[in-house]
Prior knowledge:
GO biological process, one term: bacterial-type flagellum-dependent cell motility
Radius of gyration: 23 Å
Number of domains: 2
Number of helices: 6
Order of helices and strands: HHHEEEHHHE
Keywords: Cell inner membrane, Cell membrane, Chemotaxis, Flagellar rotation, Membrane, Transmembrane, Transmembrane helix
Largest sheet: 4 strands, antiparallel
Structural class: alpha+beta
Pfam families: FliL (PF03748)
Low-confidence stretches: none
Mean pLDDT: 81
Subcellular location: Cell inner membrane; Cell membrane
Number of strands: 4
Protein name: Flagellar protein FliL
Amino acid sequence: MKIVIIIVALLALIGGGGFAAVTFAPSMVPVPVRTLLGIEVSQEEMEAAAKPSVTTLIDIEPITIPIFENGTVDRFLVMHVLLEVEPGEKQAYVNRQLPRLIDMFITYTHALAALDVAPGIQDRQFLKERLLAKIDETIGKGYVVNLLFSDLFERPLS
Length: 158
């Protein structure tokens, strides 16, 4: 009898915890479970859930970008980027497009620094989101899954 009461109590706690998670923190519940439960799922969440299960990293040599202020070089931004891609054809395509991507990283980072857009190049998440959007514009959507910074720091000129 005690075992039955313990099992019922555990099931009630699990059910209550699941209900609380779905009600108060729906982003914690995986997309397929929310879809089964009939909870509305945004398009962005569906795309995020559709990410590939197997990926590989393409290591790009560190890029040193001069940051100008008042017409002279004030400091250098050193950016070491890893691109997460699906292995196979997409990886080969991204490897062929690396010169274009490196050029885009340099050009776009110069533009962000020159425009002095808030939060700017100091905020890694902002820079990552902007570079991912530019990667999709440059080589096409769906080739790069994620962008990771191995190193990102500013070095003064002197």
